[in-house]
Amino acid sequence: MSYTITIGNQEFFGTERRDRPSLIDPYGTVRAVRTMGPGGRGSMTFALLSRVTGRSAGLVIPDVGQEVIFTFTDPNNANTVTTLFSGVLENIDISWLNPETLRIDCSVGDYTRWLDRELVSGFFTDANGGTMIQTIVAQAAPDIDTTNVDTGIPIFPKAFDWVPPSTAIQQIAEDTGYVWW
After folding, report:
1. Going by C-beta distance under 8 Å and a sequence separation of 6 or more, which residues neighbour residue 18?
2. What is the b/e burial string over 81-116, where b = at least 16 CB atoms within 10 angstroms of the residue's CB?
C-alpha cells in the first residue's frame, strides 16, 4: 500500500525512500479517525521518521496551522488516489530515537479549526438552512467551499451573537434535521 501525507507543499511517503523523510507506517502509528456524526470533529495522528546526517540541512519541520492531506494510492492503478483525511496540523512533538533518527509526532484536526478562525454574528429571516450556512461561511471563512451545501428547508428566524461558525452550523443542522461534517 502506498500512503502519502502532504504537509504544506512537502510530501512524506509510506514507503522507504532514501531521498525523502519516511512515514512511519509498519508500526501502526498512523491513525485516521473520522467522526461522521452531527458536528463531529475528525482527527488523525501520525509520526514522521527522518534519518538526520550532516547533509540534512534541507529537512523541513512541519508548522502548526499547516494544511495536512492524507492520501492512498491504489497499488493496481497509480492514477487512482483517494483522500482519506485532510485538515490542519494542531500539535507537533519532536524527539530523537537515536543520534541519527528524528521522530516528529503530529496531531491533525479536521477543517473546523479553519472554519472557526472568526466569530459570526447575524440575524436571518425568511431563509433556508443552506442559505444561512453559505452566508455564515462566506462571512467567516470565504476560502472554504460551500458548493455541496444543500439549500435545505425554510426555518424560523435565527440570530447568532458572535459564536464560532461551527456552533451556528450545528444549530441550523439540528433545526433542519440535516447532518454536517
Report:
1. none
2. eeeebbbbbeebeeeeeeeeebbbebbbbbbbbbbb
For residues 43 and 46, what is the distance between their CA atoms, to the nearest angstrom?
10
DSSP state of 168: H
Contacts of 12 (CB under 8 A, 6+ apart): 4, 5, 6, 20, 21, 22, 23, 48
d(CA 27, CA 7): 21
Show the cell assigned to 26. 509498519
C-beta atoms surrounding 140 within 10 Å: 21
Distances (CA, A) of 97 to 56, 88, 105, 155: 16, 26, 12, 56
* pTM recorded for the entire structure: 0.66
pLDDT-derived band of residue 31, with 50, 70 and 90 as boundaries? very low
- What is the average per-residue pLDDT within 32-41? 48
Name the 3-class secondary structure at 173. helix
**Do 102 and 50 touch, CB atoms closer than 8 A?**
yes
